[in-house]
Amino acid sequence: MKRKSLSTLAAALSCFFLPSALCSAQSSDTPPGNSSQNQTPPAQQQTPAAQLPNAPSSSKSEPSLEDLGFSASQTQADAQRQALLDKRTHMLKVHQRLGLIAAIPITATVIASFGAGGKDTSSASRDLHAALGGVAGDLYFASAYYAIRAPRIPGTTTRGPIRFHKAMAWIHGPGMIATPILGIMAFDQKSKGEKVHGIASAHGPVAIVTAGAFGAALLSVSVKF
């Protein structure tokens, strides 16, 4: 206790004789053992995530079509062109269905033609052949109407089997016009008891070529090759 009183008295005397700044500095010093408890190690100080170098941004978005070089007009759908495409697709589907249906009476007409010729054929066989030919012609021209009236899409090209399909149309199209005309001439001659003669005698060969071209056109769009 005496030593502590003497040290306190010495400190008071030193503050009396020394300048006040040195005295306050000595009184504010903390013991060496407590200095480590009040200091935070540098390693434990956390740096905000926003100040980290090369930190990924949470607002990053995918590149737009305009960033890739497409203009706004190019990325918008053309309503008029799409309407033409839809109409053409519908009409060509009807054309294909009618063509498939027309193949039935066309085939039947060719088969019935074998009993419609010659001297001893009955009028019933000729009537059946003519009736089947009339049904086949109606279905054929209805199918052709949808193909011809289907709107064209600018900038499109015909490729592959479609080119062959259109090429066959230049054969079976005129043939379907010439065949019934020649058939009417042949029918009149047979009804009068005459032998088919003149240009009417070409009815059979023209009909066979026409049916063959129509069948080839049908297969070109129905079977993949």
Outline the structure in words:
- The protein is mainly alpha-helical.
- It has a domain at 80-222: Four Helix Bundle (Hemerythrin (Met), subunit A).
- The protein contains eight helices and no strands.
- The protein has helices at residues 2-17, 20-28, 32-38, 72-75, 79-112, 123-149, 161-191, 203-222.
- α5 packs across α8 (203-222).
- It is elongated.
- It starts with a helix and ends with a helix.
- The model is unreliable at 24-38 (pLDDT under 50).
List keywords for this structure.
mainly alpha; 225 residues; Four Helix Bundle (Hemerythrin (Met), subunit A)
Major sheet: size, sense and barrel closure? none
CATH architecture label name of the domain at 80-222:
Up-down Bundle
Strand content: under 5%
Query: What is the 3D form?
Result: elongated
Per-chain topology:
Layout: H1 2-17, H2 20-28, H3 32-38, H4 72-75, H5 79-112, H6 123-149, H7 161-191, H8 203-222
Helix pairs in contact: 5-6, 5-8, 6-7, 7-8
Write a brief structural summary.
The chain is mostly helical. It has a domain at 80-222: Four Helix Bundle (Hemerythrin (Met), subunit A) (Up-down Bundle). The protein has eight helices and no strands.
